[in-house]
Specification:
The complex is a heterodimer of chains A (258) and B (171).
Chain A lengths: L9 H31 L11 E6 L9 H9 L13 H7 L4 E7 L6 E7 L7 H5 L5 E3 L5 E3 L9 H5 L6 E2 L18 E2 L5 H5 L6 H8 L5 E5 L6 H8 L15 E4 L2
Parallel strand pairs in A: 1-9
Antiparallel strand pairs in A: 1-8, 2-3, 4-5, 6-7
Helix pairs in contact in A: 2-7
Chain B lengths: L1 H26 L20 H22 L8 H8 L17 H9 L5 H4 L37 H7 L7
Classes of the chains: A alpha+beta (258), B mainly alpha (171).
């Protein structure tokens, strides 16, 4: 602004006025559309009446088992990704997406081994959402933290902010995709609690299903807000922990026996 | 006044271009590719003239509905476009829908539009031959619609659902 006199910048005022008008008009129209859509169908979309989460019993998580990781990779098309020509083992293993991984803890005094399946913890106050400059990191009304890859610019602030190392970045062009799992170079991604299943009415995630199928039953998926869900009942009965509870993120993924 | 002439010329080209696009479409054949499911059908998910003009808006609208609100199987789903508009490649598979001369390339090539969508989105319908990827769930049906309006639901069998999760065949 290079105004020499003290008159306010009228162009600027005009612009602000128009913007406010336009914003008003724009917000009326979707409102109308929304009500029409809701009146017509039984598919109201996500709702904050539910909050999805997991409870993981580390005692039941077997040391040599990778069923959850394998199932996740299959479900989300991670297993069909190909190693770029000439990439080293280190780069390939370090850079391919990993939505769930097993963290192995060893108590140095007793030698006791604990396995923690670790994935996005679906925080109520997600740091990834706080730091995202474009709004691509967001939390769905039902509590699922995820990336809208249409708005992700690949800055990776969210990866830095996540205390759980839950997010992956796609470094290379991807040749093969599943219909359910689009994926391409330059975006961040992470566990989305198998949203495509939830939206289709399923109440299982790939990891939970695989774990149950193998007879371990270490993972329970459900609605934290429904007092009658198996998840909520288990949480009420036994003491569970949030990983890094000190950060007060109120995670949607809880662990017992750690 | 070189500046205003430039704008006029640009506006003229734009108008002519639009006119040519629409008149060509209205008078002669459509760009629907032979060998696609659409080539044996009467209508798109919206009237043809509307689709030509507004498909990008529809796609973006439904994209946000799906990703943020969890409403799937919408009329203008990108997976739906691919399902109807991808053409058989003469072998047992499909040609990539955005490859040279294929449906999503025909007008875009002419209009110099470059789509980023298919860097991530699958370019062919799910492959019925491939073994199922993903841990498909048994029993209850899965709502999935191509031509369905919001709220309507169709039921897929277990086998069909597996097909939608099948791997892409390499081109």
């Amino acid at each position: 602004m290079s105004n020499k006199d003290d008159r306010p910048d009228m162009k600027r005022r005009e612009f602000i006025g128009k913007t406010v008008l336009a914003a008003g008009a724009a917000s009326v129209v979707p409102g109308v559309l929304l009500t029409v859509a809701k009146a017509g169908g039984e598919n109201p979309g996500v709702s904050s009446d539910v909050r999805y989460g997991l409870l993981i019993d580390t005692n039941k998580c077997a040391d040599d088992c990778t069923a959850c990781v394998d199932a996740c990779n299959r479900e989300n098309g991670i297993d069909v990704m190909e190693r770029p020509k000439g990439q080293s083992d280190d780069d390939w293993n370090g850079q391919r997406p990993q939505w769930i991984r097993k963290v192995r803890l060893k108590d140095m005094q007793t030698g006791e081994i604990t396995n923690l399946p670790m994935m996005c913890q679906h925080c109520e106050f997600p740091p990834c959402v706080d730091v995202c400059p474009t709004g691509a990191s967001f939390k769905r009304a039902d509590g699922i933290a995820m990336v809208d890859r249409h708005t992700c610019i690949g800055c990776r602030y969210c990866m830095m902010a996540c205390p759980y190392k839950a997010r992956s970045f796609i470094h290379q062009n991807v040749a093969r995709q599943l219909v359910n799992a689009p994926r391409g170079k330059g975006c961040v991604e992470s566990c989305n609690l198998c949203v495509h299943r939830i939206d289709a009415g399923d109440m299982t995630t790939a990891c939970q299903e695989a774990c149950a199928k193998d007879g371990h039953q270490a993972i329970v998926f459900g609605d934290l807000k429904d007092p009658d869900s198996k998840l909520a009942k288990l949480l009420k009965k036994q003491s569970s922990r949030q990983i890094r509870a000190d950060l007060e993120l109120n995670t949607g993924v809880r662990y017992t026996n750690v | 006044m070189p500046r205003s002439t430039g704008i006029k010329r640009f506006a003229g080209m734009l108008a002519a271009g639009t006119f040519m696009l629409f008149s060509a479409g209205a008078l002669s054949d459509s760009v629907v590719t032979p060998g696609s499911k659409a080539s044996g059908m009467d209508a798109c998910v919206a009237p043809t003239a509307e689709m030509r003009r507004y498909h990008m808006e529809y796609l973006k609208h439904d994209r946000d509905k799906t990703v943020h609100e969890g409403i799937r199987g919408l009329k203008n789903s990108l997976a739906g476009c691919v399902d109807c508009h991808a053409a058989k490649d003469g072998n047992s598979g499909y040609a990539s829908i955005n490859a040279d001369g294929q449906f999503c390339d025909k007008c875009h090539n002419y209009m110099a539009v470059t789509l980023a969508c298919f860097q991530c989105h699958r370019k062919t319908p799910a492959d019925p031959g491939a073994s199922s990827a993903g841990t498909a769930k048994e029993n209850q049906g899965h709502a999935f619609g191509l031509l369905l309006d919001q709220g309507e639901s169709a039921t897929l069998t277990e086998k069909e659902r597996a097909q939608f999760q099948a791997l892409v065949r390499e081109e």
